[in-house]
Write a structure and sequence with these properties.
The complex is a heterotrimer of chains A (502), B (105) and C (537). Chain A has 502 residues and is mainly α. Chain A contains 19 helices and two strands. In chain A, 70% of the residues lie in helices and 2% in strands. By secondary structure, chain B is mostly helical. Chain B has a single domain, classed as Helix Hairpins (Orthogonal Bundle), CATH 1.10.287. Chain C has 537 residues and is mainly alpha-helical. Chain C has a two-stranded antiparallel ribbon with strand order 1-2. In chain C, helix 1 packs antiparallel against helix 4 and helix 14 runs antiparallel to helix 15. Chain C is globular and about 80 Å long. Classes of the chains: A mainly alpha (502), B mainly alpha (105), C mainly alpha (537). Chains B and C meet through helix 1 of B and helix 22 and helix 23 of C.
Chain lengths: 502, 105, 537
C-alpha cells in the first residue's frame, strides 16, 4: 500500500514499454489479419495471443520483482495533457489471466472457425478472429490505462468487439440478444461519459491520480460518482440490470461465451474497482456501499434460483455468471472507507480471487457446455444423459468448474468465498455472510442437478457424436486451473496490494 | 443568463428527453435515435465545459473538444453496428423488435 | 504416516480416475474392496492414545487421535467388507463404472474426514463424503430413488453451509491462529459468538446424524438405492457427522447449558427413533430409525461430556460407534443376502448382534454401553438411557419380525452371506479387544454381576413388552417413513418451489426493457441521493 500521492505517474519505469506492446500489438495483428486474412487468420491470432501471454507474464514478473507498479508516459506528455499507462498488481494479474483464457479459447475454436476450403474468405471466421484480437487489445487498455477517457475508449472498444461475437451465429434470437446488449451497453457508456463531463468540469483533469489528489466531496463529484457507477453497472450486468446477459452469453459460440463470461464482463468490473478504490476512495461511505452490496446479494440469490430452474444448459451457465458477479460486489460494503487494514486486505483478496477463479471456472464450464451441445446436438438439461460416455473429460471439466462455483475446497472459489466470509463476519456484516453461504448451497444444487443428468443413461433415440480429445483437454485445463488455485494459502495476497493507495 | 448556462440547460434537456425516449419507445430504431440524441446532449455539455475553461487567447479548452471528437467517432461506430444488426434482424425475423418472445427468462 | 494418510485419501481418487479408461474399468470394479487398505495402517499409530499431527502445504493438517483412529479402523473394515461384496454384486451389471465412481469418491471422503485436522481439509473431505452419495442412492434411476437422493443432497448442502459459517466464525474469533481445528476450538469458549457457533455446529452436524427434528431425510434415504450402498452410507458416512461433533465441540471446557441441550436433543432422538421405528413396515426404514436412535445416544454422550467438561467423551462415543458402524452395515448386508428362506441360525446370529444396540450382555454393544455408564450417571439421565435401550430392544425385535416374513421381491442377486457375518464378527472382536484401551478397565469387568444386571434388565423388559404387545394383538399406527420430519421436508419443498416460482416471475418482469432501463434511471437517482445524504461532507 502506498500513500495517495504515489499513485501519480511521474516517469516511465523500466519495462513500461511492455504495457504499450500489450495494447498495440494485437491491434497491429488485427490490421495484418484484415490485410492477409482468410487462410492465415487463425495462425496470426494464435501467434499474437502467444506473444500477448509472454508480455503479460513479463509484466507480472517485473511488478512482482520490483514490488512497484510499471508506468509509461505516452509520448512524453504528462497529464493533464497526455495519458499514462500504469500496471499495478491487479492489472498484471488480470493481464495474465486474460491472455491465458484468450489463448485457450482460441485453441478451442481452432477447428470451429477454420477457413472452409475452396473459399478465399468466409465472413464468420474472419469476424470471430478479428473480434478476439480487438477484445484482447481493449482489455489490456482497460487494465493499464490511467486516464478516465482512455478507459471509456477501451470499454467501448471491448463492447463493440464483443457484439459481433454474440451475434455470430446469426439467428433471430441471437441478433435480438446482440441488439439488446448493444443498446443497453451504449446507454451505460453514455451515462459514464456524462460522469466524466462532470469530473472534468470539476477538476480540469481526467487522470486518475490527478483527480484523487484534488478530490472534494462537492455536488459535481457526488453526482459524477453516481452516473459513472450506474453506467458501469449496466455493462457489468449487476442485478437488476442483467437482462442482456443470459441470452447474449447463451447465444454465442462456445469459445465466444467463454471469453464473454470470463473476461468481457470483468472489464467493466475492473473499471468500477479502479474508480472507487483509486479515483474517489474517500467517497466510499458505508451507507452508500450497502446499496451495491444489496444488488450483489440479490444477484446471487435471484441468479442462482433462476439458474436452478433453467432447462437449457447454456442459459443455466449464463445465469450462474449473473449470480457469481454478485459476489464480487460485496467487497464494496466489506471494505468501505475507514475499515481496518486486515479486513480490507482480506476482502480485497477475496474479491480478486473470486474474479480470477470465476474467470477460469466459467470459461471451462462454457467450453464443456459447448462440447455437450456438440455431442448431443442440443443442450436440454433433461436429456444430457450419455455424455459421460462420449465426452468424459468434458464432464470432468464441468465437475471441476462446478466445484469452484460451489465454493468447495480445494478450489479458488472456496478460497475467495472463505476470505469474503471472514471479512464479512469479522466486520459484523452477517447478512452478506449468510447470502454468500446461501449462494454456495444453491450453486451446489444446480451444479449437481446437471452432473447427475450428465452421468445418467442416454435418452432413448439419442445419437451421440464423438468429439476430439484436444478440446476436452482445453476445457479441463481451464477448470483445473480454477481448482489448483485452491492450493494458495488462505490469507491476503501481497501481490494484489502492489501499487495501491488504500 | 449566460450562453454557457443556456447551452447547459439545452444539453441537460436533450439528455432527459432521450432517456425518456430510450425507456419508453418500443421500436429499436427509435431507441437508437434516442441514444444518438443522448450522445449529442453529452457532447454539448462537453462543449460547455470547454467554453468555461477558456483562458486568455483561446476560445475554449482544447481537451474537451478532442474528447468530443473521439466521442462522436465512438457513437458513430455504435450506430453503425446497431443499424447493421437491425437490418439483419429485420431480414431474419421480418420485424425488428427486441422484446423477448416467450416471456420466459 | 503422512504417506499413509495421502495414500488413504488419494488411492480411491486415483482409482476413480482410472475408471475413465474402458479397458481398466473392470479391474477397478474388482478392486473396490482393496481401495480402503491404506487406512488400516493408521489406527495402530494412535493405539496408546497418542496424537500425531502432520502439516502439509501450510494450511492443511492431519490429526490422528484415539477417537479418530477408532472410527477410522471400524469404517475401513466396513468399506473393505462391503467393497468386496460390491465387486461381486457389480460384476456384469450395467452402470458399474458409474457406481464405482460414486463409491470411490464417497469412500475417500468418508475415511479422510476422520483424520482431517484443519477446517479446510475437514470441509473438503466432509463434502466428499456427503455429496457423491447421491449417485449411490439414485443408482436405480427411479423417481422415488432420485427424490431420496435429492433430499439427501439438500440436507447435506444445507448442513455444510451451516458448518462453513461456524468454521468461519471460529477462524474470525482467533485471528492469527491459523486454521487448525484444535487451537480454534480451544479458543471457542471465550468467544462472544460461542453460543451461535455451537448452535450452528449442532444443527449442521445434526442434519448428518439425524438429530430430531432434522431426521426426515434418513428413512427416505436408507429405503432407496441398492442395499450395498445403504450399508456403507448408514455404517460409515453417517459417522462423519459424529467425528465433526467430536472435533468441534470444546469438550475440555465444562459448558452445562450447551451440553445439557445437546444431551436432551440426543435423548429425544434416541427415544423418538425407537418409538417411531415401531410404526414402520419397511425393514429398511426400521433400520433407519434405529440409526436415528443410536446416533442420538452418541450425541447424548457427547452432550453429557460437554456439560461435564470431559474430553474423554469423544473417545467413548467413538468406541460406541465402532459397534454401530459394523453391525448396522452388517444388517443391511444381511438384508441384501436374503434368499427365499432364512435359516434359523442366521436369524439367531443377526438377532444377537442387533440386540447389541440395546445392550444385550456379551455383545459388543453392551461393552459400548458400559463404557459410557460413567458419563450417563445413575440419575434421570441414566434412566433415560435405559429406556432408550428398552426402545431399541422393541425396535430390533420388530425388525426381525419384518425381515423374517417372506420377502416380497427377493434379491435377484443376493450378496454373499460372508459379508455380513464378517462384519458382525469383526464388530464383536473389536469391541472386546479395545475395551481395556478405551476405558482403562479390563474387559472382565463386563462380566461382573452388577454390570450384567444393568445391561440385561432393559433388554428383558423390552422383550417382555414386545411379547405382551404381540400377545394382545396391538396394532401400532402406520406412519409414512420420515413422519413429521418428512412432513417438514414436504412442506419445505412446496414452499421452496413457490418461492422459486415467485422469483422466476420477478425475473421475467425485470427482463423487460422498460423495467430494466427504468430501474437504471431510478438507481441513478437513488445512488446520487444516498451520496448527498450520507456522503462525506
Amino acid at each position: 500500500m502506498m500513500p495517495l500521492q504515489a499513485l501519480a505517474v511521474t516517469e516511465t519505469t523500466p519495462g513500461g514499454s511492455l504495457l504499450v506492446l500489450g495494447i498495440v500489438m494485437p491491434a497491429v495483428a488485427l490490421v495484418a489479419l484484415i490485410g492477409l486474412g482468410g487462410r492465415g487468420a487463425r495462425a496470426i491470432v494464435i501467434a499474437a495471443l502467444l506473444f500477448q501471454l509472454y508480455v503479460a507474464v513479463r509484466v507480472a514478473l517485473l511488478v512482482a520483482g520490483t514490488q512497484s507498479p510499471l508506468a509509461y508516459v505516452v509520448g512524453g506528455f504528462h497529464p493533464p495533457l497526455g495519458i499514462t499507462l500504469r500496471a499495478d498488481g491487479i492489472s498484471a494479474l488480470m493481464m495474465v489471466v486474460s491472455a491465458a483464457i484468450f489463448l485457450a479459447a482460441a485453441g478451442f475454436a481452432w477447428k470451429d472457425f477454420a477457413q472452409p476450403g475452396g473459399k478465399p474468405e468466409a465472413r464468420a471466421p474472419l469476424i470471430f478472429w478479428s473480434a478476439m484480437l480487438a477484445m484482447a487489445s481493449a482489455l489490456n487498455l482497460l487494465f493499464t490505462s490511467s486516464d478516465l477517457f482512455n478507459l471509456y475508449v477501451g470499454i467501448e472498444l471491448l463492447t463493440f468487439a464483443a457484439i459481433p461475437v454474440t451475434a455470430i451465429k446469426g439467428g433471430a434470437d441471437t441478433l435480438r440478444a446482440a441488439l439488446r446488449y448493444l443498446l443497453f451497453a451504449v446507454f451505460g457508456s453514455m451515462l459514464y461519459l456524462f460522469g466524466i463531463v462532470l469530473l472534468y468540469g470539476a477538476y480540469g483533469t481526467l487522470d486518475i491520480s490527478g483527480i484523487a489528489a484534488q478530490l472534494q466531496p462537492n455536488a459535481a463529484t457526488l453526482a459524477a460518482a453516481g452516473f459513472v457507477t450506474v453506467g458501469l453497472l449496466a455493462k457489468t450486468a449487476l442485478f437488476p440490470f442483467h437482462l442482456w446477459l443470459p441470452p447474449a452469453h447463451a447465444g454465442a459460440p462456445a469459445a465466444g461465451s467463454a471469453v464473454l463470461s470470463a473476461l468481457v464482463v470483468k472489464g467493466s468490473l475492473f473499471l468500477l474497482m479502479r474508480l472507487w478504490f483509486d479515483t474517489f476512495p474517500t467517497l466510499r461511505e458505508p451507507a452508500d456501499m450497502q446499496l451495491l452490496a444489496l444488488s450483489g446479494a440479490l444477484a446471487v440469490i435471484v441468479g442462482s434460483v433462476t439458474a436452478l430452474r433453467q432447462q437449457r444448459l447454456k442459459l443455466l451457465v449464463a445465469y450462474s455468471t449473473v449470480a457469481q458477479i454478485g459476489y464480487m460486489f460485496f467487497v464494496f460494503s466489506l471494505a468501505p472507507k475507514g475499515t481496518g487494514e486486515a479486513i480490507a486486505a482480506t476482502a480485497w483478496t477475496g474479491a480478486w480471487l473470486q474474479v480470477v477463479a470465476h474467470a477460469f471456472a466459467k470459461a471451462g464450464m462454457f467450453l464443456a457446455a459447448g462440447l455437450a451441445a456438440e455431442v448431443l446436438g442440443h443442450d436440454r438439461i433433461r436429456d444430457l444423459g450419455g455424455l459421460s460416455r462420449r465426452a468424459p473429460l468434458a464432464v470432468l471439466a464441468f465437475a471441476l468448474s462446478g466445484l469452484s462455483l460451489m465454493g468447495l475446497p480445494p478450489s479458488g472459489g472456496f478460497n475467495a468465498k472463505f476470505m469474503l466470509l471472514v471479512a464479512a463476519l469479522a466486520g459484523g456484516q452477517w447478512v452478506w455472510g449468510a447470502v454468500i453461504i446461501a449462494g454456495g448451497v444453491l450453486a451446489g444444487a444446480y451444479v449437481f442437478g446437471v452432473l447427475a443428468r450428465m452421468m445418467a443413461e442416454p435418452a432413448a433415440g439419442a445419437s451421440l457424436q464423438a468429439v476430439g480429445r484436444g478440446r476436452q483437454w482445453i476445457a479441463l485445463g481451464l477448470s483445473a486451473v480454477a481448482v489448483l488455485m485452491g492450493l494458495l494459502p488462505l490469507e491476503p495476497v501481497a501481490f494484489l496490494a502492489i501499487g495501491r493507495a488504500l | 443568463m449566460s450562453a454557457a448556462l443556456l447551452f447547459w440547460l439545452a444539453g441537460s434537456g436533450l439528455i432527459g428527453l432521450s432517456v425518456y425516449g430510450l425507456i419508453v419507445n418500443p421500436h429499436p430504431l427509435c431507441k437508437l435515435l434516442a441514444l444518438n440524441l443522448l450522445g449529442s446532449g453529452v457532447f454539448l455539455l462537453f462543449g460547455v465545459i470547454a467554453r468555461r475553461g477558456a483562458s486568455a487567447g483561446l476560445g475554449g479548452d482544447p481537451v474537451p473538444q478532442a474528447l468530443v471528437i473521439t466521442g462522436i467517432v465512438v457513437a458513430f461506430s455504435a450506430t453503425a453496428i446497431a443499424v447493421a444488426l437491425l437490418l439483419r434482424l429485420h431480414t431474419e425475423a421480418g420485424e425488428a423488435s427486441i422484446d423477448e418472445e416467450d416471456g420466459q427468462p | 504416516m503422512i504417506f499413509a494418510i495421502m495414500a488413504m485419501i488419494l488411492l480411491p481418487l486415483a482409482m476413480a480416475l482410472l475408471l475413465l479408461s474402458p479397458a481398466l474399468r473392470p479391474m477397478v470394479v474388482r478392486g473396490l474392496g482393496l481401495a480402503p487398505l491404506p487406512a488400516l495402517l493408521l489406527p495402530p499409530a494412535a493405539w496408546e492414545g497418542s496424537i500425531s499431527t502432520v502439516s502439509f502445504f501450510g494450511t492443511w493438517r492431519y490429526v490422528l487421535d484415539q477417537a479418530g483412529a477408532l472410527l477410522l479402523g471400524a469404517c475401513a473394515l466396513l468399506w473393505i467388507i462391503a467393497g468386496s461384496a460390491a465387486s461381486r454384486w457389480l460384476a456384469g451389471r450395467g452402470g458399474q463404472g458409474r457406481f464405482a465412481l460414486w463409491w470411490l469418491l464417497t469412500l475417500s471422503g468418508s475415511l479422510g474426514v476422520f483424520v482431517a485436522g484443519d477446517v479446510v481439509s475437514f470441509y473438503a473431505l466432509y463434502a466428499l463424503a456427503s455429496l457423491p452419495a447421491y449417485g449411490l442412492i439414485a443408482f436405480g434411476g427411479g423417481g422415488a430413488e432420485r427424490r431420496a437422493g435429492r433430499v439427501t443432497i439438500a440436507a447435506a448442502l444445507i448442513g455444510e453451509g451451516l458448518i462453513l459459517a461456524a468454521m468461519v466464525l471460529l477462524a474470525v474469533n482467533a485471528p492469527g491462529q491459523g486454521l487448525a481445528i484444535a487451537p480454534l476450538v480451544a479458543a471457542l469458549p471465550s468467544s462472544p459468538h460461542c453460543g451461535a457457533v455451537i448452535a450452528l455446529l449442532v444443527i449442521g452436524f445434526g442434519l448428518k446424524i439425524g438429530l430430531v427434528p432434522l431426521h426426515g431425510w434418513m428413512p427416505m434415504s436408507y429405503a432407496a438405492g441398492p442395499l450395498i450402498a445403504t450399508a456403507v452410507l448408514s455404517g460409515a458416512t453417517s459417522k462423519a457427522g459424529l467425528i465433526g461433533l467430536i472435533r468441534f465441540l470444546p469438550l475440555s471446557e465444562a459448558m452445562p447449558v450447551a451440553g445439557g441441550m445437546i444431551l436432551a436433543a440426543g435423548l429425544v432422538s434416541a427415544l423418538y427413533g425407537a418409538l417411531l421405528g415401531l410404526t414402520q413396515a419397511n425393514p429398511r426404514s426400521v433400520l433407519a430409525y434405529s440409526s436415528i436412535s443410536q446416533l442420538g445416544q452418541m450425541a447424548a454422550v457427547l452432550g453429557a461430556g460437554l456439560a461435564a467438561g470431559a474430553p474423554g467423551a469423544g473417545v467413548i462415543a467413538a468406541y460406541y460407534a465402532v459397534y454401530h458402524v459394523l453391525v448396522k452395515g452388517g444388517l443391511f448386508l444381511w438384508l441384501g443376502a436374503q434368499g427365499r428362506r432364512i435359516a434359523a441360525w442366521q436369524l439367531g446370529l443377526v438377532g444377537f448382534a442387533a440386540l447389541g444396540f440395546a445392550g444385550l450382555p456379551l455383545t459388543g454393544g453392551a461393552l459400548g454401553k458400559l463404557a459410557f455408564k460413567d458419563l450417563a450417571g445413575t440419575g434421570a439421565t441414566g434412566m433415560l438411557f435405559s429406556f432408550a435401550a428398552v426402545g431399541s430392544t422393541l425396535l430390533v425385535l420388530h425388525f426381525l419380525r419384518l425381515a423374517r416374513a417372506p420377502a416380497q421381491d427377493p434379491q435377484p442377486q443376493p450378496l454373499s452371506p460372508a459379508a455380513w457375518i464378517a462384519a458382525v464378527i469383526a464388530a464383536t472382536l473389536l469391541q472386546w479387544t479395545l475395551f481395556a484401551a478405551v476405558t482403562g478397565d479390563s474387559a472382565r469387568s463386563a462380566l461382573r454381576p452388577g454390570a450384567l444386571f444393568d445391561l440385561a434388565w432393559p433388554v428383558a423388559a423390552g422383550a417382555a413388552l414386545a411379547w405382551g404387545l404381540a400377545a394382545l394383538g396391538t396394532r401400532l399406527p402406520a406412519f409414512p417413513p420420515g413422519d413429521i420430519g418428512e412432513r417438514l421436508i414436504a412442506i419445505i419443498e412446496r414452499q421452496a418451489t413457490r418461492i422459486a416460482s415467485a422469483i422466476l416471475r420477478a425475473e421475467t418482469q425485470a427482463h423487460q426493457w422498460q423495467v430494466s432501463t427504468l430501474a437504471l434511471a431510478a438507481a441513478l437517482i437513488l445512488f446520487v441521493a444516498l451520496q448527498t445524504v450520507f456522503g462525506p461532507r
